[in-house]
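Consider the record:
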Amino acid sequence: HIIAPLIEQHYPSLTFIHIGDTTANEIKKQKLNKIGFLGTIFSMTMDSCVVQRLRQHGIDIVFPSSATRRQQLHDIIISELSHNIFTEKSKLFYVETILLMKNEQHCDGIVLGCTEIPSLIKQSDVPQIPVLDTTTIHVCTTVYI
């Protein structure tokens, strides 16, 4: 999705389904307002392509407040999840992060903004707050032309 603007520019008649748009639609459907965003260190910034797209929809996005915590989330994705390593310790760290974002940053939903995260975290792990699996949302979007 980093090159989405180029695809849309060079192929204007192509139906392009942006993951940020499908996720934004789901956020609006669930009537969520302030969204916590989890992903790699590169995607947990206001200028990442998906975050920018969500913000274009008027969605309030926040990230874990601690740079150290953001780095640890990234490291788990790169060193473990990307290699099919799923540990209880990493799961607990993600759950703790989600609950911190809910309680301290007052998020009412959490975007799992990396394909590997839903292999570690399920909605049943954090029933206190909706989690949005961007990959599933994107894949399950139906477009009628």
In short: The chain has a mean pLDDT of 92.
